[in-house]
Amino acid sequence: MLLNNQGIFRIRKTGYLSVYPLVPLITEGYFLQVRKRRIYGPVVYWQDFYQTLRAIKVLLFFLRANNNLYENVSGNKIKFTYYDIYQPMDINIKELNDSDTNILVAPPSVLLVLARAIDEGLLNLSLDKVVSVAEVLETEDAVRFKKVFSVDVIHQAYQCTEGFLGFTCEHGTIHINEDMVKIEEETIDENRFIPLVTDFTRRSQPIVRYRLNDVLVKRPTPCPCGSHFLAIDKIEGREDDVFVFKKIEGGGEVKIFPDIVRRCIIYVEGITNYQVIQNESLDIEVKLEYGRGVSRTDVQDKVREEFDKVAKRLDFVIPQIGFGIYEHTTDVKLKRVKKL
To answer: Whole-model pTM?
Structure first.
């Protein structure tokens, strides 16, 4: 532990979920972090949520590593509880059943496990708020989570080492925190862009026009919440996970964004979970979890048909498609669409 006139500092290795604000220490990817009550304030107390704190809120975080920094959020109105992702989930579920949690913060990979436990009658929760963090929240997963957890909105915290960049409003739209950061757009197409971040709040190593490798999709219409902050329709994924195929005519490449790949899967009935991986030879492996009583052969044929349609429409060479069994895990970040 280090002390200065700003307060108490602790060292935490960067990775799964960074805490805001950060004071960088130049060594081996480690950072010093100021221990302040505002660390998770934006996630917990955001906007209209101030007005909901009439009763004590039990805030539950599913994280890959705990830190006293997180627990310092606790106070008269907030009780913080940490759950270890690496602990067997049946133990976590048992402890959850014995808790009075009403705010759940977890990556989608964990939310999927908890949703299944609720469907199977193994878990009973009464939640006021669900916040998705650290991984891309797919639209189809958000729809399922809203139904299973009985909430109107699955909130998202768009946060990384470079800063606390955005959070959802009451309508479920991610708004960039333009009072804290400036986002410049490196245009990909009419709707997609790569963000260049400038953080106004740092007191140490500056973040100025720092290029992330996230692919963001702008909301095409103003958000009904009335906020003038930049509205994001979705975080599509990493630029590194954009698939590349050979063009049929004229040589060159065709880039396929993760959203197009996902549609080749979600348009096929009988699939309950999936991951699509493109390897270095540009071939595709589709890992599937099948619904009960469906024909695996029929499902696989329909997936191939969907990829064929996209290939013909966008004029690229149809890839070799192999199939495997999807096995869900919370040990690593969930990526539905992944490029090796």
So the answer is: 0.77
